[in-house]
Amino acid sequence: MRFSTRLNELLRIDYPILQGGMAWVADAQLAAAVSNGGGLGIIAAANVPPEILDQELVKIRTLTDKPFGLNIMLLSPTAEDALLLAERHKVPVVTTGAGAPGKIIDRLKPSGTVVIPVIASVAHAKRVVKQGADAVVAEGSESGGHIGETSTMSLVPQVVDAVSVPVIAAGGIADGRGIAAALALGAEGVQVGTRFVCAAECTAHENYKEMLLKAGDRSTTVTGRPTGHPVRCLKNKLSQAFEELERTSAGLEEFERLGAGRLRKAVVEGDVEWGSVMAGQVAGLVKDVKPAGQIIEEMFEQAREVLGRLAR
Length: 312
Hints:
By secondary structure, the chain is an alpha/beta fold.
C-alpha cells in the first residue's frame, strides 16, 4: 500500500508527514533528518534572531537536497525578519501560526513557495483558503505547545468537509495508528511534533528527552488559559506555579513574567523543573530515541498494517 496523496505531490515528498515547527527544537539538523527520511522537515523561526535563522537556512541546504519548510509564528516580533529570509532563501514551504497569514501568502506564493497555515477552527480554515493557502494543518487540542479548544478527532473531519485543499491532521499522532486514524478522518497527511523531539538528530537537551520518555497518559497539563494563549506541557514546578496564578486570579503581567524564556530554559539549558517542557498528550507513546528516518518508516509500516487489517 502506497501512501500517495495530493500532499506528496504538492510538497514533492515520499511520505505525507510534516515535522512540527517546534520553537527551540526544530532546527536545521532535525529538519534535514526528517526531509532526508522522506517527510518534510521544518525549521522554526519562532523568536530566533534573524542572523541565527539565516545561518540555519544556509546550513539545511548543506545537509539535504530535499524540500524543507520554515514555520513563521506571526505574532513574533521577528516575524517580518523571518518573512524576508524566506524570500531571500527561496524556502520551498512555509507554515504559519498564531495570526493572519494573508501577508505571507501574498508575498511568497508568487515566487513559488507553498504556504500552509496551521488552523484550529473551521472558520479559520475557510478564511486562509480564501486568501490562497495551498493546504491547512488542522491542529487539535491534544498537541503540545500553544493549542486551540477543539480535539483532532472533531476538528479534522469538519475542516475536510469545509475546504477543497489538502488537510493535514496534527495533535495526538505519534505512531502508525494515529496516521491511519487521520486518513480515515479525511486528512491527506499528518504533522508530528512530540515524537520527533526524541529523534536522534534532535538537539533538545537530554533532560527534556528523558522527561518525555518517562511521561504517561496523564503527564501533560494546560497552563495559561487566562492569557488567551493556553499551552500544553509536561507537569512540573513551573506548571504548578502557573496553576497557582490561575487559582489566585493573577494579572496578565504576572503570567508573562513567569513564562518569559521558559521554553528555551527547558530545551537548551535542560531545566525540566522550571522550564516549559512542551509536549502533546501522546507523550506516553514515546518510548525510545531513534533516527528520524527510522521513526517515519516505522510509523508508515504500522499504518499499512492497520489499514490492511481493517480492509480485511
